[in-house]
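Annotated sample (chain length 183).
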Amino acid sequence: MSASIHPPVQLHIVLDEDSYQGGDSVEMARRFTAVAPTEVVRAAKGSQRANVLRFDLGDDTVTAEADDDPLWRDALATWLDEEFAETSALVARENDARQNNGEQPVPFTWAEVKFGAGPVIAIRMKDSSIPPEAAGFVARSRALLPRLPSSSPVRASCLRGVRSARMPSPPSAFPRARASRRR
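Output written by the structure step:
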């Protein structure tokens, strides 16, 4: 990659019916352009995919070139961390403004990252904020994706049926299994 150390990014914000406010969505998109060109849309009625921030990063050609660039591979987690922190700050400001205007804040639940035509890497947000460990999770997940061209039948078979990878909840969120002792 010659001009930049990161691929082009586009942000898609999918809001539920209660959070989507027609003309206000244009203003919301304008505010989020500090991160990337942004599109705000209303989720389909009854969709489970609502209140989601989705980062689309380049196409397969661009991301394949990035994979070959050691600068990009080394900088990916740091760059994502900065993008996620800036996006989380914008979400907090957006929700504060909504509360100050007597409106309900947007309860963002997922941040998604998609590299080219690859699967989506989804991160559960905490209190409408992207968790600090998310950038490392995405970078590690990205490293696990096959490094074959998207047209490769091997890559196609490796990723067949894979639609997303989700960041697990912290281990403390799950009760520990107790070992039973036999006497």
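Annotation: Helices lie at 24-32, 60-67, 70-100, 134-144, 153-159.
Annotation: The beta strands are 9-15, 38-42, 52-57, 110-115, 120-124, 164-166.
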